[in-house]
Specification:
The complex is a heterotetramer.
Chain A (H helix, E strand, L loop, with lengths): L3 E7 L6 H16 L3 E7 L4 H14 L3 E4 L8 H9 L4 E4 L13 E4 L2 H16 L3 E7 L5 H17 L3 E8 L4 H14 L5 E4 L2 H13 L7 E3 L5 H8 L5 E3 L3 H16 L7 E3 L4 E3 L12
Parallel strand pairs in A: 1-2, 1-3, 3-4, 4-5, 5-11, 6-7, 6-8, 8-9
Antiparallel strand pairs in A: 10-12
Helix pairs in contact in A: 1-9, 2-3, 4-5, 6-7
Chain B lengths: L1 H14 L1 H16 L6 H26 L7 H15 L11 H28 L3 H20 L4 E2 L3 H7 L2 E2 L2 E2 H19 L1 H11 L1 H6 L4 H27 L1 E2 L7 H11 L11 H20 L4 H22 L10
Antiparallel strand pairs in B: 1-4, 2-3
Chain D lengths: L6 E12 L2 E12 L3 E6 L5 H8 L7 E6 L2 E3 L4 H7 L1 E4 L11 H5 L14 H14 L15 H10 L8 E5 L7 H16 L3 E5 L3 H7 L2 E6 L2 E7 L5 H9 L17 E10 L3 E9 L3 E6 L5 H8 L7 E6 L2 E3 L4 H6 L2 E4 L3 H5 L6 H6 L7 E2 L2 E2 L1 H14 L16 H13 L5 E5 L7 H16 L3 E5 L3 H7 L2 E6 L2 E7 L5 H8 L4
Parallel strand pairs in D: 3-8, 3-9, 6-7, 7-8, 13-20, 13-21, 16-19, 19-20
Antiparallel strand pairs in D: 1-2, 1-4, 4-5, 9-10, 11-12, 11-14, 14-15, 17-18, 21-22
Classes of the chains: A alpha/beta, B mainly alpha, C mainly alpha, D alpha/beta.
Bound molecules: adenosine-5'-triphosphate (2 copies) and magnesium ion (2 copies).
The site of one magnesium ion has 4 residues of chain D, from helix 9.
C-alpha cells in the first residue's frame, strides 16, 4: 500500500503528563504501522502558533491532519483552509466549535461534558446527596476546563440539588496553585464536605492542603482524568473517586480514525472513547495510570 | 566603485548584524528542511511574523523612548475580542456590512486608549513603565476575561477570516499590511520631529527636558502608538483565526521584546531602528518555521531556540567587538 | 542619635521614604476590615508559607537587579530544580538529591554568570534564552512526565515545605533567613557595596578596581542558589512536580522586586523592601481569594494595587504626588 | 551711568532649599543688556541652582524674577526658552546617540509639513553656527563620538540658535582648550554687542577679569556683593568669596629625588600614543602637558590597566610588570583620578562616603563585615581636607554641586595612599580656594614620598605643581622640562609640535 503521511499538531506537550503520554502512544502506534509516516508538532498552548503549524502542514501537503485544538473556536478558519486544500482533518481530544464541524472529517476523543457529569454523580454518591463543596477548575479560557465545569455543575443541580457549590476558583491545571487555592478555602469555610477538581493533579494539591490543615478526613475528593497520584491516594482511601481517561486509548483512537478517513471508510463524525468512573470499589479493574 | 559599495554594505551589516543571521538561517533551512524554500512558505513566514512584527513596530518606539510596555499581549487580546464580538451585536445590525469597519475602529481605539492610559500613568505618577505595564498586563487580561466570561468569540461571517487568508497580488494581505506599517514607522522614526525626539527622550531624558521637549505628552503618544499596533496585531491575528480567545497573546510581550533587542534596540532607550526590529522578528519567525518543517521534537525546540538566542547575541558582540585600544570594561 | 542630627537627616525624612511599608500596612488593614479571617493567625501563617517560594527567589533576583542585570530564567530554573530534586528523591534519597539539584542550578546560574558577567552579553536575552533552554532540558529529562515522591509520609524531605523549625514553618524560616543573609551581604559586606557600584555605574566600578565580571557572575550564582532553596520548598510542599511548575514565576518574582522599589536600571534597591513587595503580592492574592472575588476581578484589583503601591513609594521619595515631568 | 540702566533681568530675594540644604538664601542680582555678568562663588555656593531657577528647571521657594520689567516665573525649560533665557549647562546635557545638528536644535528642530524634519534647514543652520564657533566637526557627526571639548562646543552652539535676551554660561570653559576658549570669548563679545545680557560662571579668575563687566559673588547661598570688574582685583574678589587670599606662586621647591617608582619604555597603544618613555621618582610631581587628543588620558588609562599596550614595557620599582586590570594596578600602588567624574569617577546614586571608600572597600573590614567607623573616618578626614560641602555623608553624590563631586573623586583616590598617583584634569570645575588646597595636597603627597603624575590642560596649574613637565603632541612625547626651565611660551611651543 502507499504510505500515508499524517500531520498532527498537539495542544501543549509537556504541560502535563497526559499530553506527553498521548504523544508517546501516538508515535508508538504509528511506528507499528509500516504504511504510516507522521509529522508531529506541538503548539505549546498558543493558538497563533497552532495556526502557523496548520499552515506549515498544509504547505507540506500531508494526507491527513490531526489537530488537538488549543482553542475550539479559533482554529476553525484554518481547519476550513485545510478542508479547502483537500486535506481531511481529524480533531482529537477536545472538539472544535459547532461552526467548524462541517470542515472536519471526524472527531475522536473523550466527552468532557459527560466526564463532568459523571464526576457530579460521584460527588452526589460520596456525600449522600447533601453537603457543601468547593470546585477547583482548570485554566480559564480552555475548552476542556469549561466543558468539565459545565458538565459538573449542570449534572450536580440535576442529580443532587442539595449539594451546594460554595465557590469555584481556577487552579490552572497546577498542583501548587490548587493547593494555594484550597488553603484559602479552608481558612474561609469552616465546613467543606467535598472538593471537585478539574483533574486529579489539582485534586491531589487540594488533598495536600486539607491534610496539612488536618481536615482531610472530613472532606470527599472527586477529580477527573485519573493520574497516578490520584490512583494511589484512592488506594489509601484519601481520595473518593475520579474519571478514568487513558491517553493511550485517546491517541490510538485518533490515529485509527485518521487512517480510516484517509482510506475513505465511512466514519461517524463523533467518536467518543470510554471514560468510566473510578473509585476505590472498582479500581482493581483499571491499571494504574502511567502519568 | 564596487569596493565602496562593499564597504558600506559591510558597515550596514555591522550595524544590523541580525540581518546576517537572518540570511544564515534562511540558507541553512533551505538546505536542511524540505518545503522550506518555497514561495508559499515564505508567505507563511511573513504571515506568521506579522503578529509579533506589528506589535514590535509600536513597541520599538516605546523602547527607544526609554520605556517598555508589557501589556501589549493583553491589549492584543482585548482589541481582538472587542472587534470580533461587536460584529455580532444586535444593536449594530442596522449598519449592515459597515459594522465591520465600526468594529475594527473600536478595537483599534481600545488599544490606543489603553496604551494612552499606560502612558498617562507613567507620565503623571513617575512610576517606572515596567511596573505600570506589568500591572496593566494582569489587569487588562482580567478585563478580557471579565468581558468574555472566559469564552472564545467567533466571527459571525467567514468574510472576516477570509481577509486573513486573502492576498494582494502574490503577497498575503497581512504580510503587505505588516510591511506597509513597517515603512510608515520607519519614516516616522527617522524623518519626523516626533521620531527624532523619541531618540532624544530615550537617550537622555534630562537633556530632552532641559531642551524644552514636552517629554510627558511625547511618551504618551508613543504609548498610544504602541497600543494601536498591539491592537492591530490582535486584529490581524483574529482575522487568521476568525475568532478571538481570551488567552491569545500570552507571553508575546517577552518574545516581542526579544525580537526588538535582537534587532539592536537598547533596553535603556535612545537607540534602535525598525530595520533591526524587522530582522529580529524575521529571525525568530524563520527559526520557528524552519524547526517545524524539520520536525525538531518540541522539547528540543525550546533548547535550540534558547541556545540560538544566546549565540546570536554572542555573534553580534563578536562582530562589534571593540579594539584592544578601548578601555577594558 | 546626634550623628544623624549633625548629618542633617531627621527621623521624619527617613520615615517619609517608607511609602511601600505604609502601603503594606494600609493594604493589610483594608483586607482585615473586610474579611474577618484575613488577619487570623492560621491564614497569615498559610500565606507566609506560600510566599516563601517567591520570596526566597526574589531575594536572589533583587541582588542580580541591583547589579544592573535581569534574571528571567528563574522560572524555568525552578521547574528544573524541583523536578530534579523530586525525581531523584526516590532514586537516591533526599540528601544526595538535594546535593545534585544544587549542583545543577548553580551550573545553570554559572552559565548565566559567564555569559552576562564575563562575556558581557545582554542579560535580558541571555536569561530569556536560558528560560527556554532550561524548560526544554527539564522536559527532555522527565520525558514530559510529572514526577512524584512515592512515599510521602516518612521522608525528612517533608520538612522544607510542610514542617517547621522551632515551631515556625520552614518556608518562613528560609524566606526570612535568606532575606537577612541577603541584607547583611548587601549592606554589611564589601561584596554588597561592589554590587551596588557595579549596577550604579559599571564604568566607575571598573575604574575603581572592582572586577565587574566576577561580581555579576556571583550575583547570578546567588540567584541560582535561591532558586534551589525555593525548589526545596516547592517540591516538598507539593511532593511532586510538573514540568512547568515554575512557569510565570519569573514575572511574579520580578514584580515583587520592583514593587520593593528596586530600579531595573541597577544600583539601587533594598532587600527588606523586596520582602515587603513579596508580602504585598502574597497577601493581595490571598485577601482577594478570601473575599471571594471572581478570579479575573482579582487581576484587575492587583493592577490597581501594584500601581498605587509603587506610586506611593516614589511619591514619598520625591515628596510630591505628581511627577515633575512636564 | 550705572544707576540708570534698566536691567533686562533681575532676581530678588530668591530662596531655594533642598532636603537638608539651603542652597540659596535670599539672592539678589540684576543683569543688564549687553553686559557680561560674572557669577562667582565656592563650590556649592548656589550658582548653578540660581541659574537653573532662571532656566525653569527649579522653582524657587520665594523671591521674584523680573524680565524686561515684567515679573516671570518660568516653570519649565520650555517656558524659559520662550521668554528668551538660554542656559548652557555645567554638566553636559546632550543626547549622545543623536547628531550634532539634532543636539544643537534639540527641542526646536526645524519642521516641514506633516511634522517632517527639515534636514536641509537644520544642517545649513547648524553648519553656519559651527563655522562661527570655528568647529572642525560636521553637523552630521554623532555626538557620542566627540571628545569632551567638542561636546562642550555643541552645548555652546545652542546659545546661538535662538534670539535670546539672556544667555547663561555655567562653567563653559571647564573642558575647553585655549583655542576654543578664544572662540567662545569672541562669541560672547558678539552676543554682548547685540545687546544680550550674559551671565558667566567660572572658577578661572583670568577669564573673569578678561571678559566680564561686573562680578557678583555668592557665598553659602547668600549674596555677598556686586563689583565693577574694572574697579576690583583678584585678591578682593577672592577674599569676598572665601574669606582669605591665596598664593599663586610657581613651584620652586627642589626635588628630593627618590628612587624611580614608575618607568615606561617605548610604550605604545595602537594609534593613540607611540613610543612613550619617561620615569617618575618618589617625591616628584611630573606634569603632562598637551593639547586635547595628545593621548595623555589614554596613556594614564594604560598605566592603570584599562588598556593593553601594543608595545613597550611598564616598570615599577625597576621590575617589568604587566598591569592588566585596574585591580592589578591598584595592587601595584597606582591610583587614577579619571578625566570624567560623572562617567568614570562616581556612582552618582551612591552616597558620599560609599563613593570615597569604594576602591579600598575590601580593606575596610572587621572580620567579614564592613566597619562603618573606618569608612566614616576616611570620609570625615577627606571631607575636611578638601572642604567638601555636603550636608552629610548620606547625601547622594548626584545632589552635590559639580565642584564638590570632583572633590569626592579626588578624595577617593587620595584615600588609597597610592605610591603613584595619576590625576587627569584634577581641578576641573573646582573653585579657587579648593584648587589651591588640592595643589598643596599634591605637593604635600610628593614631599611624603609619593610619585605623582598630573595631567592638566591648564598651563598655570602644570607650572604651579610640577617638578618636571613632559609635553606630548599627537601621541608622542616631545620634550621634558624641569620646573625651572619651563615657562608658558616654551610649553605652548612643545605641545603644538613646534620643537
Ligand atoms: N537636587 C539637589 N538636591 C539636594 N541638594 C542639591 C541639589 N542640587 C544642588 N544641591 C545643593 O545645593 C548647593 C548649591 O549647589 P550648586 O550646584 O548651585 O553649586 P554651585 O555654586 O554651582 O557649585 P559648583 O561651583 O561646584 O558648580 C550644594 O550644596 C548642593 O549640594
Ligand atoms: N583628531 C581627532 N579626531 C577625533 N577625535 C579625536 C581626535 N583627537 C583626539 N580625539 C578624541 O578626543 C578624546 C580626547 O583625547 P585625549 O583624551 O587623548 O586627549 P588628552 O591628551 O588626554 O587631552 P585632555 O586630557 O586635555 O582631554 C579621545 O577620546 C580621542 O579619541
Ligand atoms: Mg555649578
Ligand atoms: Mg584627556
Amino acid at each position: 500500500a502507499e504510505k500515508i503521511k499524517i500531520g498532527i499538531t498537539q495542544n501543549n506537550v509537556g504541560v502535563d503528563s497526559y499530553q506527553t503520554t498521548y504523544e508517546k502512544a501516538f508515535i508508538a502506534a504509528a511506528a507499528k504501522n509500516p504504511d504510516v509516516e507522521t509529522v508531529v508538532l506541538d503548539a505549546g498552548g498558543d493558538v497563533a502558533r497552532q495556526i502557523g503549524q496548520m499552515q506549515d502542514l498544509i504547505q507540506q501537503k500531508v494526507d491527513v491532519i490531526i489537530i488537538w485544538p488549543t482553542d475550539g473556536k479559533a482554529v476553525v478558519p484554518v481547519v476550513r483552509k485545510a478542508h479547502q486544500a483537500g486535506i481531511p482533518v481529524v480533531v482529537t481530544n477536545s472538539n472544535i466549535a459547532a461552526d467548524g464541524m462541517d470542515f472536519i472529517a471526524a472527531f475522536s476523543g473523550p466527552n468532557n461534558i459527560q466526564q463532568g457529569a459523571s464526576a457530579a454523580e460521584l460527588m452526589c454518591e460520596a456525600l449522600g446527596n447533601k453537603g457543601e463543596i468547593v470546585q477547583i477548575s482548570g485554566q480559564p479560557g480552555y475548552t476542556t476546563a469549561i466543558e468539565r465545569q459545565k458538565g459538573f455543575e449542570d449534572q450536580l443541580a440535576k442529580s443532587c440539588p442539595d449539594v451546594k457549590i460554595l465557590e469555584t476558583q481556577p487552579g490552572d491545571w497546577n498542583r501548587e496553585k490548587a493547593q494555594r487555592v484550597m488553603e484559602a478555602f479552608l481558612v474561609k469555610y469552616n465546613k467543606i464536605d467535598g472538593v471537585y477538581s478539574g483533574d486529579d493533579n489539582m485534586g491531589v494539591g487540594a488533598l495536600n492542603a486539607a491534610k496539612a490543615a488536618n481536615r482531610a478526613k472530613d472532606i470527599k475528593f472527586v477529580g477527573a482524568t485519573n493520574f497516578a497520584v490520584g490512583y494511589e491516594a484512592m488506594e489509601r482511601g484519601e481520595y473518593y473517586g475520579s474519571i478514568y481517561q487513558s491517553p493511550v486509548d485517546d491517541a490510538e483512537a485518533a490515529l485509527a480514525t485518521a487512517i480510516a478517513v484517509k482510506a475513505g471508510k465511512q466514519v461517524p463524525k463523533l467518536n467518543y472513547f470510554e471514560t468510566p468512573k473510578i473509585t476505590k470499589a472498582n479500581m482493581d479493574k483499571f491499571t494504574k495510570p502511567v502519568f | 566603485m564596487s569596493d565602496i559599495k562593499n564597504n558600506s554594505f559591510v558597515r550596514w551589516l555591522s550595524r544590523n548584524p541580525i540581518w546576517g543571521f537572518v540570511v544564515i538561517v534562511f540558507v541553512f533551512f533551505s538546505f536542511a528542511a524540505d518545503h522550506f524554500f518555497a514561495l508559499q512558505n515564505v508567505e507563511n513566514i511573513l504571515v506568521q511574523a506579522s503578529t509579533i512584527g506589528l506589535i514590535a513596530l509600536g513597541l520599538t518606539l516605546v523602547m527607544i523612548n526609554g520605556n517598555i510596555d508589557l501589556s501589549v499581549g493583553a491589549i492584543l487580546a482585548l482589541a481582538a475580542t472587542v472587534t470580533v464580538d461587536m460584529q455580532g451585536w444586535e444593536t449594530l445590525a442596522f449598519l449592515g456590512d459597515w459594522v465591520l469597519l465600526v468594529a475594527v475602529l473600536a478595537g483599534l481605539l481600545c488599544g490606543t486608549l489603553l496604551g494612552g492610559l499606560n502612558g498617562l500613568i507613567v507620565w503623571k505618577t513617575g512610576v517606572d513603565s515596567f511596573i505600570v505595564t506589568l500591572g496593566a498586563m494582569l489587569g487588562i487580561r482580567g478585563l478580557v476575561f471579565v468581558y468574555t466570561r472566559e469564552q472564545s468569540f467567533y466571527a459571525s461571517s467567514f468574510a472576516y477570516s477570509d481577509f486573513g487568508s486573502s492576498s494582494i497580488g502574490p503577497l498575503p494581505t497581512l504580510a503587505v499590511l505588516f510591511i506597509a506599517c513597517a515603512i510608515v514607522i520607519h519614516v516616522l522614526l527617522s524623518r519626523t520631529v516626533h521620531g527624532r525626539n523619541t531618540y532624544a527622550v530615550g537617550g537622555n531624558r534630562e537633556a530632552a527636558v532641559n531642551a524644552g521637549i514636552r517629554v510627558g505628552p511625547h511618551m504618551v503618544v508613543n504609548f498610544m502608538i504602541g497600543g494601536f499596533f498591539a491592537a492591530l496585531a490582535g486584529l490581524a491575528l483574529s482575522t487568521q483565526m476568525g475568532a478571538s480567545t481570551p488567552n491569545m497573546g500570552r507571553e508575546y510581550e517577552l518574545w516581542t521584546i526579544t525580537a526588538i533587542v535582537l534587532g539592536g534596540t537598547k533596553l535603556t532607550g535612545g537607540s534602535g531602528s525598525i530595520v533591526g526590529t524587522l530582522g529580529g522578528v524575521l529571525a525568530i519567525s524563520i527559526l520557528r518555521n524552519g524547526m517545524n518543517l524539520m520536525q525538531v521534537p518540541s522539547f528540543y525546540v525550546l533548547v535550540v531556540l534558547g541556545v540560538i538566542l544566546i549565540a546570536v547575541l554572542a555573534l553580534d558582540k563578536h562582530l562589534n567587538r571593540r579594539t584592544a585600544q578601548e578601555p577594558a570594561l | 542619635m546626634d550623628k544623624a542630627a549633625t548629618d542633617g537627616w531627621s527621623v521624619r525624612q527617613i520615615l517619609a521614604q517608607q511609602g511601600i511599608l505604609i502601603a503594606f500596612v494600609l493594604a493589610m488593614l483594608v483586607f482585615g476590615l473586610f474579611s474577618d479571617r484575613f488577619l487570623a493567625f492560621d491564614n497569615i501563617m498559610a500565606v507566609l508559607r506560600q510566599t516563601g517560594i517567591v520570596g526566597v527567589m526574589a531575594i536572589g533576583v533583587t541582588i542580580v537587579v541591583i547589579g544592573g542585570n535581569l534574571d528571567l530564567s528563574v522560572g524555568s530554573m525552578l521547574s528544573m530544580a524541583t523536578v530534579l530534586v523530586v525525581d531523584l528523591h526516590d532514586r537516591i534519597g533526599p540528601g544526595p538529591a538535594i546535593l545534585i539539584m544544587f549542583c545543577a542550578v548553580l551550573a545553570a546560574g554559572a552559565i548565566n554568570g559567564v555569559l552576562v558577567g564575563y562575556l558581557r552579553l545582554n542579560s535580558l536575552i541571555v536569561t530569556l534564552g536560558m528560560l527556554s533552554a532550561l524548560q526544554g532540558i527539564t522536559l527532555i529529562y522527565t520525558d514530559g512526565k510529572n514526577v512524584d515522591i512515592a512515599n510521602q509520609s516518612d521522608t525528612w524531605f517533608a520538612i522544607f515545605g510542610r514542617g517547621d523549625i522551632a515551631g515556625i514553618p520552614t518556608p518562613i524560616v528560609m524566606f526570612f533567613g535568606v532575606a537577612v543573609l541577603g541584607h547583611v551581604l548587601l549592606t554589611r559586606m564589601p561584596f554588597g557595596r561592589k554590587v551596588y557600584a557595579t549596577g550604579g555605574n559599571p564604568r566607575t566600578a571598573v575604574y575603581s578596581g572592582i572586577r565587574r565580571g566576577r561580581i555579576v557572575f556571583l550575583t547570578y550564582l546567588i540567584s541560582a542558589f535561591t532558586v534551589g532553596c525555593s525548589a526545596l520548598i516547592l517540591g516538598s510542599r507539593v511532593m511532586g512536580s510538573q514540568n512547568n511548575v515554575g512557569q510565570g514565576y519569573e514575572l511574579l518574582v520580578l514584580s515583587a522586586v520592583i514593587l520593593g522599589g528596586t530600579s531595573l536600571l541597577g544600583g539601587s534597591g533594598n532587600i527588606l523592601k523586596t520582602v515587603i513587595g513579596v508580602l504585598i503580592l502574597g497577601f493581595i492574592q490571598n485577601g482577594l481569594l478570601l473575599l471571594g472575588f471572581p478570579y479575573y476581578a482579582q487581576w484587575l484589583v492587583t493592577w490597581v494595587v501594584i500601581i498605587l503601591t509603587v506610586w506611593l513609594d516614589v511619591a514619598s521619595k520625591r515628596h510630591s504626588l505628581w511627577s515633575p515631568i512636564a | 551711568m550705572t544707576g540708570e540702566i534698566t536691567p533686562v533681568l533681575s532676581v530678588k530675594d530668591v530662596v531655594k532649599t533642598f532636603p537638608a540644604v539651603r542652597a540659596l538664601d535670599g539672592v539678589t542680582l540684576d543683569i543688564r543688556r549687553g553686559e557680561v555678568h560674572a557669577l562667582l562663588g565656592e563650590n556649592g555656593a548656589g550658582k548653578s541652582t540660581l541659574m537653573k531657577i532662571l532656566a525653569g528647571m527649579f522653582t524657587p521657594d520665594s523671591g521674584s524674577i523680573t524680565l524686561d520689567g515684567r515679573e516671570v516665573a518660568p516653570k519649565s525649560p520650555l517656558e524659559a526658552k520662550a521668554l528668551g533665557i538660554v542656559l548652557i549647562h555645567q554638566e553636559l546635557s546632550l543626547v549622545e546617540e543623536l547628531t550634532v545638528a539634532e543636539n544643537v536644535f534639540l527641542g526646536a528642530l526645524p519642521r516641514r509639513s506633516f511634522g517632517f524634519v527639515d534636514w536641509n534647514a537644520l544642517h545649513r543652520q547648524t553648519a553656519e553656527i559651527l563655522r562661527r564657533l570655528n568647529c572642525d566637526f560636521a553637523p552630521t557627526s554623532i555626538v557620542g563620538d566627540l571628545s569632551i571639548a567638542r561636546k562642550q562646543m555643541v552645548e555652546i552652539a545652542r546659545a546661538l540658535t535662538v534670539d535670546a535676551k539672556v544667555v547663561i554660561f555655567d562653567e563653559p570653559t571647564a573642558s575647553l582648550t585655549d583655542q576654543e576658549k578664544l572662540v567662545l570669548f569672541d562669541i560672547i563679545a558678539d552676543l554682548k554687542a547685540a545687546g544680550v545680557g550674559i551671565v558667566y560662571i567660572s572658577h578661572r579668575m583670568e577669564e573673569i577679569f578678561r571678559i566680564s563687566d561686573r562680578i557678583t559673588v555668592l557665598r553659602d547661598g547668600a549674596y555677598r556683593g556686586t563689583l565693577d570688574t574694572a574697579a576690583t582685583s583678584e585678591a578682593e574678589v577672592t577674599r569676598l568669596m572665601i574669606g582669605r587670599s591665596l598664593d599663586y606662586s610657581r613651584n620652586t621647591e627642589t626635588v628630593a629625588a627618590g628612587a624611580i617608582v614608575l618607568e615606561t619604555r617605548g610604550l605604545s597603544c595602537g594609534d593613540l600614543f607611540q613610543d612613550v618613555s619617561f620615569s617618575v621618582r618618589a617625591g616628584e610631581v611630573v606634569g603632562f602637558s598637551g593639547l586635547i587628543g595628545a593621548g595623555r588620558s589614554e596613556l594614564a588609562e594604560t598605566l592603570f590597566g584599562l588598556r593593553r599596550p601594543t608595545a613597550g614595557a611598564i616598570l615599577i620599582d625597576g621590575a617589568e610588570v604587566s598591569v592588566e586590570t585596574p585591580t592589578n594596578a591598584i595592587r601595584h600602588g597606582i591610583s587614577l583620578v579619571p578625566e570624567s567624574r560623572k562617567e568614570q569617577g562616581l556612582v552618582l546614586g551612591m552616597n558620599c562616603r560609599d563613593n570615597i571608600t569604594l576602591p579600598q572597600i575590601d580593606a575596610l573590614r572587621r572580620g567579614p563585615f564592613l566597619s562603618p567607623a573606618a569608612e566614616l573616618d576616611i570620609y570625615d578626614s577627606y571631607q575636611k581636607r578638601l572642604s567638601i560641602r555636603s550636608p552629610g555623608w548620606r547625601q547622594l553624590v548626584r545632589n552635590l554641586s559639580g565642584g564638590n563631586q570632583q572633590k569626592i573623586v579626588i578624595g577617593k583616590w587620595l584615600a588609597m595612599k597610592p605610591r603613584l598617583l595619576i590625576v587627569d584634569e584634577p581641578t576641573r570645575g573646582i573653585d579657587v580656594g579648593s584648587k589651591a588646597e588640592i595643589h598643596n595636597l599634591i605637593r604635600e603627597l610628593a614631599r611624603g614620598g609619593y610619585a605623582v603624575i598630573v595631567i592638566s590642560s591648564e598651563m598655570p596649574e602644570i607650572l604651579h605643581v610640577s617638578d618636571r613637565i613632559v609635553t606630548m603632541y599627537h601621541g608622542r612625547v616631545m620634550r621634558e622640562f624641569t620646573a625651572a626651565e619651563a615657562n608658558e611660551d616654551s610649553l605652548v611651543q612643545a605641545i603644538s609640535g613646534l620643537n
